Amino acid sequence: MRATFMGFEVQKRTLMMAQKNQDIVGNNISNINTPGYTRQRVDMYSVYVSGLGEARWSSRTSMLSMQGQGVNAYGVSQIRDIYIDKRYRENVAIEADTDKRMTILGELEDIMDNFETTGLQLKTKDFWAALQDYSEEKPDSTEVATIAVNAAVNLCRMLNDYHQRICEVEDTYVNELQDTIGYINKMLNEMTDLNEKIEKEKFHYADNYGPNELYDHMNLYIDELATYGEIEVWQNKNGTFNVKMGGVEILNGNDLKNSQIYMKDYSVYGVCDLYFESGQDVILQSGMLKGYQDMLNGNGVYATGGQSGAYGIPYFKSAVNVYARTLAEILNTANGAEQDASRTMFESSTGDVLITAGNIKVSDNWREDPTMIGKVRYLNEKTGMYEYGFNQKTDTPVTQVKYQKKLYKTNYDGTWILDENGKKIEADEDTKYAQYDYVFDENNNPVPVRDAAGNLVYETVDGTASGEVNLQNTNVKYLFSQFDNKKIVFGNAHDFSGSFFEYIGFISNRLGQTIEYETARNETAVITVDELLDARDAVSAPQMDEEGINMLNYTKWYNASARMVTALDDMLDKLINGTGRVGL
Q1: pLDDT band at 55 (very low <50, low <70, confident <90, very high)
Q2: Buried b (16+ CB within 10 A) or exposed e, 64-73
């Protein structure tokens, strides 16, 4: 026969467990909108009595009376899926990385949005057109020459503006990165303080259980930390958390320490060089810090030192610098500046040897004498000295065979439009962009013009029939021809080979393609993160319907147990007051 009051003890524990489950259900419902809250549950087990030692009565069969000890609980646990947490934190790092890249590239796009329209392309075309107009006039035509100078000035100012605005974006994100690092370090200190609290609280809990609310707080920190770089997380026996970022331990719960992140002076080193307090470099594969690093260090084919091959702010700043430098080098060389510095067309406004988009300007010599580029170097036979002057021609007319020409379609920058066979496409007078070019036969030789009798037709190409002096604008024509050169090498690493107009299109396309690539990566990451959030919520977030059902079940359980206490009370009353009384 079992102990008299054992049934009451069993039901007391049952009522306590039902009440505790109701408490946890109520806690889940009240925190259903609390950020970071993890659904909790009571981990229960059936109480049993061992058949060994003093617990055994006179025989094994007597143990029957000790069965049915009711229910008890190990503790209150959280419902989390470690695998989903890991995948979520991996993908949220990619999302934050690509989002930061898109933001920075978007600002570059705002600056360079008019690159191929009303910006650099147009200013270059204006300068090209001004040189063309000047080349068709006499070299001493000061008014037309001044227009060419002004067009060059406007082109330089446009390049200066691009450089300044790109540098402003660079400065903005260097400062933002410094603020971000400060925020991360502050968060690491708060996580260390939280680890200390967890360790103290965990002392009062059984194994595998702990202060759930503090765990939720820590997981919120960890989720946010995951946006800055890929992390590894594990929990220690004392309930505290350890975290690695980029393979380096930045939070140690056992020692209650963290490793702060620092950045070298960008203005001194010219790169975004991050390192941990432990001295190890911050080397990441994803995360917001990785986005900052690639956008502030990414110099493409121009990368040196600690820079990377990504297409970031330095690359597009270099691309504009290369354009300015190449333009100056090509035209200065064509104008004879290598032999005589007075022939320089473009120079540095800061006195630096290296011309950039930030310092390029029209030379003082050219400003003071707009017709300088119309003059040529010749030997003065009287003085024996080389001088500069306008090219005079008094020769008798020079003729050559006249060749056939046709009108062909071009792009707005003057480049030919070709068909699938690589042939130029004929145009008519109504075509918006078109120009004349020679007609070639199957052997790629120009086709001559013949009269009705089949004789070759000749045309005058130099000199005048009267023998009068004619100023030849040969140098400006030569300068103008540089814009037709499609084999100009841009950049010290041969980033591109083509004409000035083609290079502008190349840089604009590279920016657009980079944005398109990062946008596609971001969209994929966002979809994945949203799916993982839904999966995590399905496991860890309180569900109103489910908690409502649990509330009804535990209420029924509580009521049934209460009725059981009433039944036991009736039985005990019968035993005490009714046993042994005859007739009752």
Answers
A1: very low
A2: eebeeebbeb
pLDDT tens profile 229-282: 999 999 999 999 999 999 999 999 999 999 999 999 998 988 999 999 989 999
Dihedral-angle region of residue 232 (phi above 0 means left; psi in -120 to 50 means alpha; beta otherwise): beta
- Element of type H or E holding 9: helix 6-30
- Sign of torsion, CA 282 287 293 298? positive
In this prediction, residues 62-80 reach a mean pLDDT of 80
Question: What length does the chain have?
Answer: 584
Query: Nearest-5° angle of CA 89, CA 94, CA 96?
Result: 90
Q: What distance in Å separates the CA atoms of residue 273 and residue 135, rounded to the nearest whole number?
A: 51
CA atoms in the 13 A half-sphere facing the CB of 496: 22
> What are 274's strand-pairing partners?
263
What is the Cα gyration radius of the chain? Answer: 42
Tokens found for residue 300: 């493409």
**In one letter, which amino acid is 270?**
G
Give the tokens for residue 10.
């069993």
The tens digit of pLDDT for each residue in 426-459 reads 888 888 778 888 888 877 788 888 888 888 888 7
Q: Which amino acid is at 98?
A: T
> Based on the number of CB atoms within 10 Å of its own CB, is 526 exposed (0-12), middle (13-18) or buried (19 or more)?
middle
**Average pLDDT for 530-537:** 95
Q: Single out the residue of 558, 504, 466 nearest to residue 316, CA to CA.
A: 504
Sequence-ordered alpha helix ranges (H) in 451-499: 474-481
Cα–Cα distance for residue pair 480/145, rounded to 1 Å: 13
Q: Grade residue 582 by pLDDT with cuts at 50, 70 and 90.
A: low
Asked if residues 218 and 191 have their Cβ atoms less than 8 Å apart, the reply is yes
> pLDDT: is 38 or 403 the higher one?
38
Ranges of beta strands (E only) in 47-183 are 71-78
Joined together, the tokens standing for residue 57 give 């009565």
Q: Residue 244 and residue 264: Cα distance in Å, rounded?
A: 22
Sequence-distant contacts of 261-268: CB under 8 A, at least 24 apart: 261/181, 261/184, 261/185, 261/289, 262/181, 263/177, 263/178, 263/181, 266/174, 266/296
Q: Are 501 and 483 in contact (CB under 8 A)?
A: yes
DSSP state of 55: G
Measured distance CA(336)–CA(469) in Å, rounded: 25
